[in-house]
Amino acid sequence: MNNDAHLKLENQLCFRLYSLTKLMNRHYSPVLKKLGLTYSQYLVMLVLWENNDTTPAISVKQLGEKLDLDSGTLSPLLKRLEKQALLSRVRNSDDERSVVIKLTDSGCQLKSQAQNIPAQMFSVTGLSIDELQGLNVQLDGLLATMNTK
Amino acid sequence: MNNDAHLKLENQLCFRLYSLTKLMNRHYSPVLKKLGLTYSQYLVMLVLWENNDTTPAISVKQLGEKLDLDSGTLSPLLKRLEKQALLSRVRNSDDERSVVIKLTDSGCQLKSQAQNIPAQMFSVTGLSIDELQGLNVQLDGLLATMNTK
DNA sequence: TTAATTTAAGTTGTGCACAATTTAATTTTG
DNA sequence: CAAAATTAAATTGTGCACAACTTAAATTAA
Predict the structure, then answer these.
(1) Which one of A44, A146, B88, B141 is most buried, by most CB atoms within 10 A?
(2) Which of residues 109-138 of A touch strand C (CB under 7 A)?
(3) Is 0.85 surpassed by the pTM of this model?
């Protein structure tokens, strides 16, 4: 491939990732709209649902580490979820710098409405279980490499 | 896997795509900043550079089809690139609904500064050529499937 | 050939994502 | 201990991405 070929859109992995992420979002949007959530808000709820049994309180900082997002993104997003009464935001009395996020009852209850979303989205991919897992492994490798460079 | 496992972040392909796209963007940003471009602006320039020899004029509509973006995204983006004198926006006299985008001389010249970006980004992935091509094929399949459902 | 429909851009408003900065609290260090 | 450094959130500003809508031009159909 010459230099010009590298600059062509069709040869670029990153454009595929970019397009696929947008497409993924378009499939999620109508489904999540029924729960009143955006995709990013859904990710926050996934973390909270996942930890609710063992660790029902999590700081904004910890949430940011799990989702790779900073307070500039999370602060307004969490305020919107608080306004929807899905979670509470309270300063940690042990360390007033930190804000503790907890699910409310209705935030907990929303989980049942989300149970079938992963299966629904999986069917949209048209992949087999093996193909999905193979892709997950490859993308994990890529994430690991790109996170350390 | 039970229902709860499906709702875990670590099991979700979409979260990997989402994280990887953000990570990709973070690697591009400092490189593209030297050219005064964002990633989306870079994509527009790629299309214009690619077509400049054969088709030096392209409509906003055609650009949107290539990049899968609508006028709501492209109109302001193209105005910013016009303000940077990288391209011109002129109404098509044959069809006044359409706006024709053309590279300016400095827009053409910027191409040389972008020549080494693909190789630079490829090295960040840590992939072999074969691995890259394999991944491209898989993502193309996924894009095709998800575009028709 | 006028009226109805379609099309192309642009505009407005919402919600990320992130850089850069600010504020306040905590920790470290001289 | 007090000053300096670090840390956690929040704020401000920019630029997407997209839904919903508007405007103006072109096409189609009555």
Answers:
(1) A44
(2) none
(3) yes
